[in-house]
Amino acid sequence: MKLLVVLLALGGFGALYGFKICDRKAPGTIMGSPTNCSEFYMCRDGRPVLFACPENMYFDVDTAACGYEAFCADNDVDFSQDPYEPPVQEYSPIETNPSQLVTGQSLMCRGAPVGAIRADMTGCSAFYQCTKVGPLRLECPAGTLFDSNRMLCDPADIVSCAYAPPPKPPAPSAGNMLELLCYGKKNGYKFAHPTNCARYVVCNGNNRAQEFTCPSGTAYNKLRKICDFTHNVEC
Ligand SMILES: *[C@@H]1O[C@H](CO)[C@@H](O)[C@H](O)[C@H]1NC(C)=O
């Protein structure tokens, strides 16, 4: 029984780390994990976000960035009071996808100090940490986006994203010829069906096509843009 209590306490202890380490830290602060040298936290209101350095890299507490030669030390956490608090699940960190070093020439971190955080200019689902060996791409966890004003991952609906790409009309699927023919056409645009004389197509303005069949004895007249007697229509 005693053992079980200790195990439970340790379990709760682990879950609480992410929260304790961010206690009284400004939102957006990056903190190394006291239990794993390759992990670090992004503090925010609510659950902190847990990130991991790429394989063979460790979080360097001096530069606040992942590196190959990292100084990893216990962080300034008061362990003495934690173990006997009940585990509070909501404080367990939100885990993220693996991080990725950006290889090749990249201007993103040029002139920036190691540890600097940079927004992604192409969207808001990720951000970059400037490391000694180049920018490290970090994805915000599901349901969150990177706020380029406050420089942290927060719920998508409250995030201000300066780099959201303008919404593009959905590209037509190569398989659907009619939608391809309607691509970029305005609502009501009408044309002859490419393979069936008795049919015509109307675009709805959203790159969608609707097919119609002319009444029996008629066919679609391309010039007059109506269903016409078949003897008036060249097929
Ligand atoms: C430390 O974190 C990394 C990345 O999340 C993980 O792969 C590794 O297993 C962890 N190490 C320990 C000892 O928990």
Structure summary:
Keywords: Chitin-binding, Disulfide bond, Glycoprotein, Repeat, Signal. Helix content is 11%, strand content 28%.
What descriptive keywords fit this protein?
single chain; 235 residues; alpha+beta; 4-stranded mixed sheet; 4-stranded antiparallel sheet; 2 helices; 11% helix; disordered N terminus; binds 2-acetamido-2-deoxy-beta-D-glucopyranose; Chitin-bd_dom; Chitin_bind-dev_reg; disulfide bond; glycoprotein; chitin-binding
Low-confidence stretches: 1-14, 75-81, 86-90
Bound molecules: 2-acetamido-2-deoxy-beta-D-glucopyranose
Please outline the major beta sheet: 4 strands, mixed
Tell me, rounded to a whole number, the average pLDDT: 81
How many structural domains? Answer: 2
First-to-last CA distance: 88 Å
Helix-strand sequence: HEEEEEEEEEEEEHEEEEE
Q: Number of helical runs? A: 2
Strand order of the largest sheet: 1-2-3-6
Q: Using DSSP, what is the number of strands? A: 17
**Radius of gyration using CA atoms only:** 29 Å
Q: Shape, please?
A: elongated
Q: Helix/strand/pairing class, anyone?
A: alpha+beta
| Beta-strand residue fraction | 25-35%
Q: Helicity range of the residues?
A: 10-25%
